[in-house]
Amino acid sequence: MLTNLVPYPRIHFPLVTYAPIISAEKAYHEQLTVSEITNACFEPGSQMVKCDPRNGKYMACCLLFRGDVVPKDINSAISVIKTKRNIQFVDWCPTGFKVGINYQPPTVVPNGDIAKLQRAVCMLSNTTAIQEAWARLDHKFDLMYVGEGMEEGEFSEAREDMAALEKDYEEVGVDSFDPNDDEY
Predict the structure, then answer these.
(1) Which residues contact 176 (CB under 8 A, 6 or more apart)?
(2) Distance (Å, rounded) from C-alpha 89 to C-alpha 82?
(3) Span 58-83, average pLDDT
(4) How far is residue 69's CA from residue 71's CA, in Å, rounded to a whole number?
(5) In this protein, which residues make up the domain named Tubulin/FtsZ 2-layer sandwich (predicted)?
């Protein structure tokens, strides 16, 4: 799974998504379909990091289903995602999805806030959209640098590394694959 999600050593920060997230008090009797929970993984509200995946391109997706699911429904949901083309993938990487299934129902904390459901999915993906999170972190870093008055060398080196990481994610999303390029 690691080799599929991480195309380059520095591009190794997965975006974690979980669906559905439904509160115990708002739980309804209608169960969401495999297609609905799969589509929810590509919505900003299901993510564990605040960024908009519609502003970036995916390099890889790993969907880990739990509960009452069948492979046919999963394949159908993925097929719809690929054909709709709402979700963009980088052109230099095959639009592959890795899938795992655990037929045990999702577990919840007893008397907790999350509803007990028949099925759920956790997605690990590598997307260029996560650079939005790095940009926010860089901005906060710059404010801290000005406010804290710490050693300039330490801050400068760390800031340069963060800027390079942000640039790496930006470059990965650019559609420029040259099959004759021997450099890796």
Answers:
(1) none
(2) 9
(3) 95
(4) 7
(5) 1-139
**In which residue are the tokens 């028949």 written?**
118
Query: pTM higher than 0.85, yes or no?
Result: no
Query: Nearest-CA neighbor of 131 among 53, 76, 69?
Result: 53
Give me 8's structure tokens: 């380059």
| Cα dihedral across residues 144, 162, 97, 65: positive or negative | negative
Work out the average pLDDT over 54-65: 92
DSSP class per residue in the chain: -HHHH-SSTT---PEEEEE---BSTT--SSPPPHHHHHHHTTSGGGBSS---GGGS-EEEEEEEEEES--HHHHHHHHHHHHHH--S-B-TTS---EEEEEE-SPPP--TT-SBPP-SEEEEEEEEEGGGHHHHHHHHHHHHHHHHHH---HHHHHHHHHHHHHHHHHHHHHTS----TT----
pLDDT attached to residue 73:
98
Domain locations along the chain = 2-130, 134-172
Residue 77: per-residue pLDDT: 97
Q: How many CB atoms lie within 10 A of CB 133?
A: 17
What does the alpha-carbon distance between residue 131 and residue 148 come to, in Å, rounded to a whole number?
Answer: 25
**CATH homologous superfamily, domain 2-130:** Tubulin/FtsZ, C-terminal domain (3.30.1330.20)
